[in-house]
Amino acid sequence: MSNVHLAKGSHQPVFPDDGKLRLYSMRFCPYAQRAHLVLDAKNIPYHVAYINLTEKPEWIEKVSALSKVPALEIPGHGESLIESLIIADYLDEKYPQNPLHSKDPLQKARDRILVERFNSFITPFYRIVFQRNQGGAPGAITELTNALDVYEKELRERKTKFFGGSKPGMLDYMIWPWCERSDSMKFILGDKYELDKVRFSELLKWKDEMQKDKAVKENYISPEDHYKFASLRLAGTPDYDFLAVVPPKKLRLS
User: Fold this and answer.
1) Facing residues of 47 across strands?
2) Strand 21-25 to strand 46-50: parallel, antiparallel, or no bridges (unpaired)?
3) Which of 21, 29, 82, 230 is catalytic?
4) Whether the predicted model's global pTM rises above the 0.90 cut
5) What is the pLDDT of residues 211-252, one digit of tens each?
6) Are 71 and 24 in contact (CB under 8 A)?
7) pLDDT for 105-149, tens place per residue?
8) What Cα–Cα distance (Å) separates residue 225 from each residue in 40, 83, 117, 144?
9) CB under 8 Å to 188, separation ≥6 — which residues?
10) How many angstroms separate the CA atoms of 172 and 179, rounded?
């Protein structure tokens, strides 16, 4: 399928009637990336349509109640799920292969808390990326660095390669999109942002191991390209398709 983002004036994609899930996504959206990671980690076949979130197609409300991504359309049910964490939980419960959540209810609850607490990293990260033309983001570097102490401590206590154990679990995949994007800050901050190799020794090893994961590699975007997209968006000229590979005409979704 095309990875060109569908915008105003486009036709709603017609997918093959093969029973596969349909994911409405955006190539640079970390929340949508969560859904891709779970689908790919669990080897669930799916179709994908990418959406231009600046010039949204008129038909998007038909497949996403809040006109947002990710939205997961379930063939035969006439409805779509929204919100990345809800989609991730649904997929893990519906498709038992390669379970991502812990089977221990208490550990599952602890991991959910850690996913929610990661907002303490996400919020200052976005201040650095999108407020750099407004006098910077005072204190943001300290905030996001301090936020990571919780996850460094957690890995040290678990004494495992990943938060999920010997392989990535739900917590790993739910926080990864922003860890992937964090390297783009070097183009904004230069040497002002570099994780202390002693303070964050386990997290840095975790990050290296995550980059070897199959699902992560299938959805990976370089720091340079993350920075480029964020810069274009900040300038008011977002380009959703500079990474797009245009397929033969017969495979186009619009």
Assistant:
1) 22
2) parallel
3) 29
4) yes
5) 999 999 999 999 999 999 999 999 999 999 999 865 544 444
6) yes
7) 999 999 999 999 999 999 999 999 998 766 557 899 999 999 999
8) 22, 25, 27, 22
9) 128, 129, 132, 227
10) 10
Is 29 catalytic? The answer is: yes
Residue 42 CB partners (closer than 8 Å, separation 6+): 91, 92, 95, 97, 98, 100
